[in-house]
Amino acid sequence: MASNTDREMILADFQACTGIENIDEAITLLEQNNWDLLAAINGVIPQENGILQSEYSSENIPNPVFGPSALPNTSASSIASSSSSSGSAFRPVIPSRQVVERLSRMLDFKVEYREKTADVVLEDSCTVGDIKQILENELQVPAAKMLLKGWKTGDVEDSIVLRTLHLPKHNNLYVLTPDLPLPSMSSQSSSQQESLNQNYTLIITHREVKREYNLQFSGNCTIQEVKRNVYDLTSIPVRHQVWEGWPPSAQSDSVSYLRIPRS
């Protein structure tokens, strides 16, 4: 019986080969075939499509012959010797990693940054760093200054291949640039600009679990970015978060924390 690690690998290979994104559906199909990857794939994609083939063509494989009459003057010992020396004419069809890797999936990423939104589409054989390179042109932000957030598994390195993250087809991410100041406006006073460059501490209480967080944010951080950071800590999606304590002027998540009047 396959171990949990083996099943995770089989599940990933099965989804890559068949394009089935629903994990529950994929697991059901695999369980129906007793976690036999080949049988499950052939149940979804007929073998005659040529997705998975034996290394031996039909021209090279002799027609099978059955019965002792088909082998005159041949003893049982010579048959066994011939079989062991020449090897079987048939080989089980085993999907190799190369076959799986050729079946790349296209992934969609909707990435938010301040007031901008960028759509990135690329193959799952690309890396996290490749997304940043595309965003560098789209957002006009150096890739080295980006913190790409929103991954279900937490922060990931730029060298990570997207396929290894087992992502759905559609993904929502966001970019933080704590090392870059908010673009200055002509009407902004020098004191306001100075306050935007300072760091501030928010004391956030999660009432359901009776836990308190002391989080530091730069002055140019928006309410939306605060909520996203809380999501990273609590796994509560932004749309499900209910907040109390913001001033009445904080009607939009795009408002910078420092621009909210405080008592």
From TrEMBL:
One of its GO terms (cellular component) is endoplasmic reticulum. InterPro entries: FAF1_UBA (IPR044541), Ubiquitin-like_domsf (IPR029071), UBX_domain-protein (IPR050730). GO terms for molecular function: NF-kappaB binding; ubiquitin binding. GO terms for biological process: ERAD pathway. This is FAS-associated factor 1.
